[in-house]
Each structure stands twice: as structure tokens, then as C-alpha cells.
Amino acid sequence: MKCSLRQFAAAFSVLCITFAAYAQSPVEPAGQISAKTSTIAAITITGTQKVPVDQITAASGLKVGDVVSAVQLQGAADRLAALGIFSAVNYRFSSKGDTISLEFHVQEAQTYPLSFDNFPWFTDEEIAQAIRQDVGFFTGEAPESGAMVDEILRVIDNLLASKKIKGELTHQLVAQAVGDGMMVQFHVDTPALRIQSVTFGDSIATDSEQLKDHISDIKGQPYSLFAIDVFENEHILPLYSAKGFLRAKIGPPVAHLTSEPGNPSAGGVDVEIPVTPGPVYAFGSISWQGNSAIGTPNLDGAVEIKPGDPVDGMKMEGLWQTIETAYASHGYLDAKLNPQAQFDDTAHRVSYQVSLMEGPQYRMGAMVITGLSVDAEKRLRQVWLIAPGQVFDNSYFETVSRQLAKPSMEIFGEMPIHYTEFGKWLRPDTEKHTVDVLLDFK
């Protein structure tokens, strides 16, 4: 039976009552509500996936045997909600005589991995261990903000103080350098420690002229794990992938400080990037699933590598993009490939299963042109080759767009055309399966 706080204050003979931890306020003055108290006989926690139950109970500030009022129960729920690790906290209780059995139901908030961007004085594990010792609920991740993040900042600030390092600590939610996920990045604003040297743990990287051409991306720059991760992903991994080392493991980087005695904020950082190449993988085969618009023989014909040859991972990435482009040129603007590599680690061979989601075929809708004179617009429409209702060719659209990036004689001939900015958009209609072309000139 659900009942009001007034009934709770008057009798406390209710069976259950539920509150939102941060949305409710007493309907009676606090003094009247707290006049009726009961003893907690049991506390249960439901809804948790990551956070241990005993930690949630401890953070509530309540324990079995406590004598509490409705205000104290609400206060416990508010404390849990303020942590930031729960998107919602609700509670209810059932009464028996002068005792209650209390249940907190929590919904865990989105949490993210942590990144300690420019703390070369400590390893990531040293920072994480310090956080685990002082911050409850810490599982290696944290919400974007809230009490937990404040506590993490306090721990890091204490670590910096132990090294006599002064600087303003900041944190923000950023995209990870590798992959599609997000992370909470911690950063300290101090006089920048710059990367003095970069070494690699494998001769292929050490001897690569390609890497030498790009080493200035990080060498001489402020020390930043994020920048190093980007460098690894954009330059080192492609180098090994192109040579068939499809499972090469890069990093994590190791920082060696060259600070001045008594001044850890001065000096520089020598960075060592470990590299474990692993075996070279040979090509096995590709199987296609879900394709109908483009037949399997045509897809097979786009594969230039032969069975048994070392796999150039970068060319394979190019192959998937080429196929998506081919679909788009036949009007399948939503086509997506999902290639799954299947590794035979005994034979050092890799095969691929590729699932295709072709989606609908789009046809040309309207062309909307803004910013041109009447004569220039008429000329552009005359040279545009896709008539309304015809299958839309995205490759042709991109070719014309490149020509229109600046006034082009290929399009306008000798007409006096002047514009400095050009914008292009596609406006698909997912119900009619048509796509409008929008062109803007300024």
C-alpha cells in the first residue's frame, strides 16, 4: 500500500513508501516528520551492476540497528545521488512493529575509462592504486562529474603535492584516440614538460623513414599521452599493418623523466614506445553475406590480394571503402560493411567474413541552388547529368562538388562567376527513397 509522508509521521504503520532521491521534499516541517522514528532491521541494495553492495550501504551512512526518521532516509538517498555514479536512487521500506526493512534501488550512471594525460611523474597504475585506496566505488571508471570525480581530483592533487608539483587540475570528457568510445581525461596545467626523445621497441619502427618524417608530431611537443596515442594509431600501427603484422601490439608508452634536481616540473621526458610485431599473416579468403545489388563475382573481383600472400592491412581497409563507394555510386547511400577477421594463429592465416547491409536504393530528387545568378544556375542545371527519378550516383556528386569548390570553367565556361565559399549537402528522404542535392554559393 502506498501512503504519504503525513501518514508516515502520524502512524508509521505503512507497508511501503517510495521516494526519488533527489526529487522529493517533505510535505511536513522536518520537526514533525522526525518525531516518528524506527529501527532499521535490514538494508538491501538492488539495481547495481558494477558497484559492490557493501560500498553503497556504507556510502548511505546507514547501518542495521540505526534509529531513523523519514528525513534521515531521504538524506541517505540524497547522499547516494550526489556521488554522480547513479542516474537515479529510489528507496522504499516495509514496516513491522517498530522496525523497518529498507531497500535502495539504484540505476548506475554512464561511466567512462580514465586517462591521466600528462603525469609522467607517475605510472597510470600508481595513480589508479592511489584512487582505489581513497575513493569508494572506484572500479577503474568514473562518471563525467560528481562527488567521485571531486575525490579523484583530490587524490591526484595530493600525489602532485608529494612531488612538490604545482598546477591546476582539470578534467573533461573527450573521445578516445583509438576507437569510438569516450573517456574522462585528467590534465594538469604546469610549465610544459616537453618530449625530448622518442625510441621504439622494434627495429622496423626504429629504421622506418616514414616514422622519422612524422616524429616531430610529438618530439619537442608538450608531453601528452593523448598525443602519443594518436601518433601510434596514425603512424605506427599502419606501418606494421601494411607489412602483414595485423596483430602488432603498440605501447603503452613509458616515460623517463630528465627533470632538474629539486625541480620536477622542469626538464623533459624521454618516451619509449614498446612494439611487439607478432607474426605476419597470409591471406586466406573472403566470404560475402547480404549482398544482392552487387554480385559476389564482382565483389571478389575487387580483391587484389591472392591467397597465401601477406596481407596488407591498409589495402584491406581501402577495399572496404572502395566497396562502400561502389554501392553509393549505385544509389545505396546507407550501405555499410561489417568485415570480421578470422585469424588462424597456427597457420598465421586470416580470412574475412563480410556482412553487407545494403539499405534502400535512392533516386535523384530535387536540386536546390542558392547564391548564383539566374544564368549561372541555369548553366549548372544544364550540365548536371542525373535527372529526377534516376538512380543517384554519389561518386558523380562528389566529382561535381570538387569542380565547384571554386569557380570552374568546366561548369560555367566563360561566364563571369565569383564566389569564395561553397557548401554541399544531401537531403535523403528515407520514406520516398529520394535524395535532394543542396548547393550553396557565397
Structure description:
With 442 residues, this protein is an alpha/beta fold. It folds into 5 domains: 5-108, membrane protein fhac (Ubiquitin-like (UB roll)), CATH 3.10.20.310; 112-189, Ubiquitin-like (UB roll); 194-276, Ubiquitin-like (UB roll); 282-357, Roll (Ubiquitin-like (UB roll)); 363-441, Ubiquitin-like (UB roll) (Roll). It contains 14 helices and 20 strands. It has helices spanning 5-10, 30-33, 53-60, 70-82, 124-134, 147-162, 203-207, 209-214, 225-242, 296-301, 313-329, 374-383, 394-404, 409-412; strands spanning 19-20, 38-46, 67-68, 86-96, 99-108, 112-116, 141-142, 168-175, 182-189, 194-200, 249-250, 254-257, 268-273, 275-276, 282-289, 336-344, 349-357, 363-370, 422-429, 434-441. It has a 5-stranded mixed β-sheet. A 4-stranded mixed β-sheet has the order 7-6-9-8, with helices on one face. It has a 3-stranded mixed β-sheet with strand order 10-13-12. Residues 1-34 have low confidence and may be disordered.
Outline the fold blueprint.
Blueprint: H1 5-10, E1 19-20, H2 30-33, E2 38-46, H3 53-60, E3 67-68, H4 70-82, E4 86-96, E5 99-108, E6 112-116, H5 124-134, E7 141-142, H6 147-162, E8 168-175, E9 182-189, E10 194-200, H7 203-207, H8 209-214, H9 225-242, E11 249-250, E12 254-257, E13 268-273, E14 275-276, E15 282-289, H10 296-301, H11 313-329, E16 336-344, E17 349-357, E18 363-370, H12 374-383, H13 394-404, H14 409-412, E19 422-429, E20 434-441
Parallel strand pairs: 2-5, 6-9, 10-13, 15-17, 18-20
Antiparallel strand pairs: 1-4, 2-3, 4-5, 6-7, 8-9, 11-14, 12-13, 16-17, 19-20
